Amino acid sequence: MTQRRILIVAHAYREDTVRAAVRVVNAVRAEGAVPVLAPDDRAELSAIVAELADVPALGIDVALTEIDIAIVLGGDGTILRAAELVRGGTAPVLGVNMGHVGFLAEIERDDMDEAVHRAIIGDYAVEERLALAVIVKDDDDRVVYETWALNEAAIEKDQRERMIEVIIEVDRRPLTAYGADGVVVATPTGSTAYNFSAGGPVIWPTVQAIAVVPLSAHTLFSKPLVVGPDHAVAVELKDDSAGTGVLWCDGRRSHPLPPGARVVVRRSPKPVLLARLHPAAFTDRLVRKFKLPTEGWRGPSEHTPTETLTLPSLEAHE
Ligand SMILES: NC(=O)c1ccc[n+]([C@@H]2O[C@H](COP(=O)([O-])OP(=O)(O)OC[C@H]3O[C@@H](n4cnc5c(N)ncnc54)[C@H](O)[C@@H]3O)[C@@H](O)[C@H]2O)c1
Ligand SMILES: Nc1ncnc2c1ncn2[C@@H]1O[C@H](COP(=O)(O)OP(=O)(O)OP(=O)(O)O)[C@@H](O)[C@H]1O
């Protein structure tokens, strides 16, 4: 059997995640697999823990296509960073929550050793999450920037004192126009992030959809929209928009949007892959992460992993 290659992505500025990175590197080696670090991470981490300096580097010693799985030690920001690192390959991401929220993480830090073992031996399921393909066109309809998003494409004003004037379009048909702080075009995964703060709906990960949510729109029609996964949503900055804008994808990849710029968002042909160790109900994740009140609930005590079902069970309607 070929040796498995495990990318380890750790938050480099926290003591606990750096310590966890050393532990995971040692566990991977002890089980006969190859630990790998992104070159920048290796430089940052080995400045703190010298023994990490000899870990093979991604793209130098080991190609991205050779990576079997990425183990992530951090919060959602670190998981989004890991998703970017493995985007050109086929490795799923396994998040160990060492952040504050860790909504995208599969497990909490206390279960790390068992999770690492299962990652090394390949004992996990892979869940596909809808991702967005995002392009920016200039006012001559030329593509000037291309990227992708797991959470959202946020079209935002970039001057505090000026709104942006936008036109929303679906499948090349104009829908409405308004002045706003911005527009969030979110995936089901991102529905619990910026979309959620902006008043958008929480979308279960089993739903394939794209949400379009205005940020402080100065209009009576400012409802969040949800379109199917095969619709193309475009947000245009009007030619006479007083304010200039900026595109931010997952808070990581950005591009300026002058008046006349057009951002086109579609479902990416390439989903993001998340490694799953347990079939868990998305409902439970929402309750746990957002600390929702459920005291007094009198429903059935047996656990039904609804996240993996496509139809609601009969009990759900009781
Ligand atoms: N007002 C807001 O809520 C707001 C504003 C800007 C960006 N964001 C979000 O921050 C994300 C980037 O995350 P970061 O950690 O690098 O930045 P960050 O450190 O500023 O954290 C933003 C918060 O969003 C949470 N988060 C991120 N993805 C999530 C998800 N899918 N579900 C639930 N919560 C999630 C993080 O845990 C964190 O609490 C962006 O993709 C965007 O969704 C939110
Ligand atoms: N090695 C690194 N180099 C540069 N930035 C990093 C590195 N590790 C983490 N970050 C950044 O630090 C920020 C915070 O990280 P992260 O979100 O993982 O932690 P958190 O804020 O504690 O957790 P949560 O997002 O769950 O609240 C993110 O924007 C992340 O991308």
TrEMBL record:
Its main location: cytoplasm. It is found in: Cytoplasm. It is an enzyme of class 2 (transferase). One of its GO terms (biological process) is NADP+ biosynthetic process. It comes from Microbacterium barkeri. Residues 294-318 are annotated as: Disordered. The active site is at D76. NAD(+) binds at D76, G77, R81, N151, E152, R162, D181, T192, A193, Y194, N195, F196, S197. Belongs to the NAD kinase family. This is NAD kinase. Residues 306-318 have a biased composition (Low complexity). InterPro entries: ATP-NAD_kinase_N, ATP-NAD_kinase_PpnK-typ_C, NAD/diacylglycerol_kinase_sf, NADK. Keywords: ATP-binding, Cytoplasm, Kinase, NAD, NADP, Nucleotide-binding, Transferase. Pfam families: NAD_kinase (PF01513), NAD_kinase_C (PF20143). GO terms for molecular function: ATP binding; metal ion binding; NAD binding; NAD+ kinase activity.
